């Protein structure tokens, strides 16, 4: 019953957030940041299944997010919106609300299918070699999408936001926010239930001693397929949400830099720690948002102090110096991350009253 | 019909012939030993039998069924389990999880059940947990259930590995140098434990062992290999006085 207490706390927090959003207590900026937080939580905790629990080094996770973003957007546009691309909506807009979860599920399955691009080579390839394959998979996916002109090619794709607007026309509520809160909760739940089941413990078994796993009866290939497909599938769901939050997708938003963000969150939180990575994803989102304000501030400050020549501006691009720098510092000083492979319950044993990870 | 049968099995690693024309038939409820100097090819035999290697030549049947082409987890599912010369536990999982995972090939539920926590999941996990705790109890490991194997003494790790192997409910148990690294009082305990397992679980045990005391007091019959070639077979008493065996172990000068 301990798990239930925590579920209730989460549910109440979610409801409180949704209510505040609905009541207009949270402004649009705060809502957007909260939504990216949720998406980052899904993105990072799904990556953690492969990089943390299974001990492989996937550096192309954003590729799967990209598949989900496009498939989710295309489906939602075709089904619920009048678009140049697909013509009139196939279904009445009132159905957008009840059927949106199916769009997300379809996006997840599509991304999971692309997960096979990495899962199948993983039968015979490990470590560095598999890492290279994941990078290749990331590039393959964004290149394919960029080269399909019908879905916008390098220009990207607009118009999925209308689906969310249609939900609002039907019943007035902050639907996008509600979906993100709900799906984040569901995704973390799926991962939690998977990794605490004997079935899912096959994943760390493959990581810790693959020979023993195979010889003790664990179908290691099946476990790898499961880990990679669940991981990429959830990334796809995160992608579909991301597209609908932004109202615009572009394949280049899911290149290796985005994958690196995932790595930073996983290694910040501690590989193989679900609670650690959730916390890290939240912290990371706040950090990135913080940089939006800190960078111009530092720029102005250094210029007004005369420390920098007039022609030299510190722009937002410096985010891409700072984020990889965090990774370097982490690897140098705390390679096991915030929590290592421990869960929050090990660091604060009092929490065991509420939840158990074993 | 023998439980396990190897017919003229040979194994090559590149230019090295690690095993040549190895044949044996094991019946249900036997306790058989495989001995030979280091590098003789003993572990290779177990790796072939458990499906980890595919023999270069020859035929292996388990329970009347040829195992060629089966993956190790499929062989395990047929009723074979083993321990390893160098302990191979999942060191960051708890002892209890190590035992639970031995049920992985017959979970009785799928990933979807795990995610939705269906009734089937609940019943299956309950049964797995109960059986895992039972075996820990019988193997006097209950107090270590929550520990990580890496924090346990060597002798306890060996017992955990044995408990894990038994949890798959094997008909044939392969033990690869179970006494390696144990001190002499632990070895006495191990001998009693193996005999007890043999009586209690009514299975066939095939063991590789260096320590003569262990094989001599446990095995009903022995096979000796050297450089992959079978040099003797017989009862422990016969083997002990076999000149070929003495030569293999101690060199020509010994005779
Ligand atoms: N996977 C392998 N690849 C190459 N050579 C191997 C392999 N496994 C075992 N060998 C070689 O086969 C011979 C027998 O090894 P092994 O069966 O481990 O001996 P032991 O009787 O000590 O258990 C050794 O010379 C070993 O180096
Ligand atoms: Mg050996």
What features would you describe in this structure?
- The complex is a heterodimer of chains A (about 350) and B (about 260).
- Helices cover about 70% and strands about 0% of the residues of chain A.
- Chain A has 14 helices and 2 strands.
- Chain A has helices spanning about 1-20, 30-55, 60-80, 95-120, 125-145, 160-170, 175-195, 200-210, 210-215, 220-245, 255-270, 275-305, 320-335, 345, and strands at about 155-160, 250.
- In chain A, helix 2 runs antiparallel to helix 10, helix 2 packs across helix 12 (about 275-305) and helix 11 (about 255-270) packs parallel to helix 13.
- The longest helix of chain A is centred in the last third of the chain and has 31 residues, at about 275-305.
- The radius of gyration of chain A is 21 Å and the shape is globular.
- The model of chain A has no long low-confidence stretch (mean pLDDT about 90).
- Chain B is α/β, with parallel strands linked by helices.
- Chain B has one domain (about 5-90, about 155-255): 3-Layer(aba) Sandwich (Rossmann fold).
- Chain B is about 40% helix and about 25% strand.
- Chain B has helices at about 40-50, 70-75, 95-100, 110-115, 120-140, 155-165, 185-200, 210-220, 235-240, 245-250; strands at about 5-15, 15-25, 30-35, 55-60, 65, 80, 170-175, 205-210, 220-225, 230-235.
- Chain B is globular, with a radius of gyration of 19 Å.
- The model of chain B has no long low-confidence stretch (mean pLDDT about 95).
- The chains are: A mainly alpha (about 350), B alpha/beta (about 260).
- The interface of A and B includes residues 212, 214, 216 and 217 of A.
- The complex binds adenosine-5'-diphosphate (ADP) and magnesium ion.
SSE map:
The complex is a heterodimer of chains A (358) and B (255).
Chain A: H1 2-22, H2 28-53, H3 61-80, H4 96-119, H5 127-146, E1 157-158, H6 161-170, H7 175-196, H8 202-208, H9 210-215, H10 220-246, E2 248-249, H11 256-269, H12 274-304, H13 319-333, H14 344-347
Antiparallel strand pairs in A: 1-2
Chain B: E1 4-13, E2 16-26, E3 31-35, H1 42-49, E4 57-62, E5 65-66, H2 72-77, E6 80-82, H3 95-100, H4 111-116, H5 119-138, H6 154-167, E7 172-176, H7 184-201, E8 204-208, H8 212-218, E9 221-226, E10 229-234, H9 236-240, H10 243-250
Parallel strand pairs in B: 3-8, 3-9, 6-7, 7-8
Antiparallel strand pairs in B: 1-2, 1-4, 4-5, 9-10
């Amino acid at each position: 019953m301990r798990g239930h207490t925590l579920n209730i706390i989460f549910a109440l927090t979610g409801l409180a957030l949704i209510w505040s959003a609905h009541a207009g207590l949270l402004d649009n900026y705060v809502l957007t940041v909260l939504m990216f937080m949720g998406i980052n939580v899904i993105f990072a905790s799904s990556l953690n299944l492969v990089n943390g629990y299974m001990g492989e080094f996937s550096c192309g996770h954003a590729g799967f997010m990209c598949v989900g973003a496009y498939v989710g957007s295309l489906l939602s546009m075709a089904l619920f919106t009048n678009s140049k691309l697909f013509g009139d909506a196939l279904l009445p807009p009132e159905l957008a609300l009840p059927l949106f979860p199916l769009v997300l599920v379809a996006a997840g399955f599509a991304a999971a299918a692309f997960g096979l691009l990495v899962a199948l080579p993983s039968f015979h390839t490990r470590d560095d070699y598999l890492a290279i394959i994941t990078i290749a998979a990331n590039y393959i996916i964004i290149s394919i999408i960029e080269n399909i002109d019908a879905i916008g090619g390098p220009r990207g794709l607009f118009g999925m936001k209308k689906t969310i607007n249609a939900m609002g026309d039907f019943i007035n509520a902050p639907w996008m926010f509600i979906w993100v809160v709900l799906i984040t909760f569901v995704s973390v739940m799926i991962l939690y239930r998977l990794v605490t089941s004997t079935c899912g413990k096959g994943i760390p078994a493959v990581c810790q001693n693959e020979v023993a796993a195979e010889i003790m009866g664990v179908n290691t290939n099946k476990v790898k397929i499961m880990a990679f497909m669940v991981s990429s599938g959830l990334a796809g769901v995160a992608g579909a949400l991301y597209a609908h939050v932004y109202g615009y997708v572009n394949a280049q938003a899911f290149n290796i830099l985005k994958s690196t963000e995932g790595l930073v969150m996983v290694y910040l939180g501690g590989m193989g720690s679900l609670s650690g990575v959730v916390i890290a994803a939240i912290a990371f989102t706040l950090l990135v948002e913080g940089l939006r304000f800190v960078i111009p501030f530092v720029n102005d400050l250094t210029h007004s102090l005369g420390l920098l020549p007039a022609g030299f501006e510190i722009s937002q691009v410096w985010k891409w110096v700072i984020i990889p720098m965090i990774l370097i510092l982490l690897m140098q000083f705390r390679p096991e991350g915030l929590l290592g492979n421990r869960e929050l319950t090990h660091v604060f044993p009092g929490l065991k009253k509420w939840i158990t990870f074993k | 019909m023998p439980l396990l049968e190897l017919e003229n099995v040979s194994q090559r690693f590149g230019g090295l012939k690690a095993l040549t024309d190895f044949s044996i038939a094991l019946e249900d409820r036997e306790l058989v030993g495989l001995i030979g100097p280091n590098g003789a090819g003993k572990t290779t035999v177990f790796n072939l039998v458990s499906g980890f290697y595919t023999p270069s030549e020859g035929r292996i049947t388990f329970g009347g069924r040829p195992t060629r082409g089966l993956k190790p987890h499929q062989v395990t599912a047929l009723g074979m389990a083993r321990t390893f010369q160098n302990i191979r536990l999942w060191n960051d999982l708890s002892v209890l999880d190590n035992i639970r995972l031995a049920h992985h090939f017959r979970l009785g539920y799928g990933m979807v059940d795990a995610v939705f926590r269906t009734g089937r999941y609940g019943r299956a996990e309950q049964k797995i947990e109960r059986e895992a705790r039972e075996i820990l109890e019988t193997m006097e490991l209950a107090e270590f259930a929550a520990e990580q194997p890496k924090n346990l003494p060597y002798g306890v790790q060996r017992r955990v590995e044995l408990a894990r192997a038994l949890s798959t409910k094997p008909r044939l148990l392969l033990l690869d140098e179970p006494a390696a690294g144990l001190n002499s009082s632990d070895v006495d305990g191990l001998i009693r434990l193996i005999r007890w397992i043999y009586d209690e679980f009514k299975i066939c045990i095939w063991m590789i062992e260096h320590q003569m005391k262990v094989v001599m007091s446990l095995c009903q019959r022995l096979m000796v290999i050297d450089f992959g070639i079978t040099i003797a077979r017989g009862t422990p008493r016969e083997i002990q006085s076999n000149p070929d065996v003495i030569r293999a172990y101690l060199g020509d000068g010994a005779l």
